[in-house]
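Something for you to look into today, if you have time. Could you write out one complete protein record for me, on any chain you like? The space below this message is yours for that.
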Amino acid sequence: MDNCVVRQAVKDLHTDAIVGYELMVQEDKDSLYNPSSDSVAANTMMSFLSENSERIFKDRKTFMTFTPTLLFRNTPKIFDKDRIVIQIEDNIVVHSLSSIIISKYKEDGYHFAINDFQFTPKYFSMLEYVDYIKVDISNKMGETERRSVENVVEMAHGFQKSFIATGVNTKEVYEYAKELQVDYVEGNYISMATMSKTSKMEFMQGNLYQLTIEITRDEPNIEAIEEIVSRDASLTYALLKMANSAYFAVHHETTSVRQAVVRVGISQMKQWLYLLSFSSNDEENSSEELLKTSFMRANFASMLVKKLKKFPINTTDAYLMGMFSTLEYMIDATIEEILIDIPIVQEVKDALISKEGKAGRLYELILLYERAEWSEIKPIAEELGIKTNEMAQMYMECVDEVNDIWENVVGNVEKP
């Protein structure tokens, strides 16, 4: 099966209230785990930032596992410290610099949970920083294991730490958790895990490279950032999804790249870009031609709309229509599913899904022009009020512009 990001509820054992959700990854039907590699962890975080549109996380904490690399690169700073719980595992506990880096986050107000606590000096050295101790009790129900878990629960409460029993997948384990007098429980008996399919998106390496340069300047140029993002369909889609996600608790829809850049902010965009870098393919980007096509359509559509009077969409809408026209070939989903959470005008959605309305006719005209189907181009152009000779000139101008920009993008990438 495809990789899925899994939301597992964490419930207060005494009040029955859901206090938060842990994000995990399901790689196949039998494999459910916390992300232990940088790329898996980064993809999980990207999915959280772009997919949690139903506002389920609004007033609850999110437990998320961070690798040493992500911690040292300040990736948690992209998240609200009051809504995220940084989970640490053995790869952090045994790290020689763990105390230094964790104490820094603790001073900044972040909260920590430690997974599968063990009675070793390294784990005890982490106690002063963590707020939650988590232990999978599903395989610790024998007499010897039970005594060990009871000791951990007693120790946690002695240090004023909350104990979360995980692996609570049956009534028997749930009753066991109650006997242990734990604080919180997590598992399928509490709430069935909710899965969200993750869609692998490829980003043009040159655009990522140029965006990295621009966004890490001492004084980043918002207009330059907007321009770079706007010429990449995948970047545009990902940024709009994140800016409109429940995580940012938006009161008004973010409908343009400029608005998204301002809403997310430079600091968080730096971390967002760092997470994206883990998603990039080491092999040659197979989506390059599709991205170039979408960029060409976006420029052509916006240029045509400038010539039209009383048209139902403006140049920005037309640009997004062209930019999003290739997404269903880059994301494993239908165009209807892709557009459902993107706040673009209905006319553009209708055009991309079924070529309906005047915007749909414009979209159809652009596709026909790409295929040089001249006999069908003329009647639609006349219907919209576009002169075919002007259309030809605008198309060639777009071709030249796109080719110049693309050569610059590709040429600026440092090949290994």
Summary: DSSP finds 19 helices and ten strands in the chain. The chain has three domains: 4-197, 205-279, 288-411. Residues 28-33, 52-56, 281-286 have pLDDT under 50 and may be disordered. Strands lie at 4-12, 18-28, 31-33, 61-65, 84-88, 111-115, 132-136, 162-166, 184-186, 194-197.
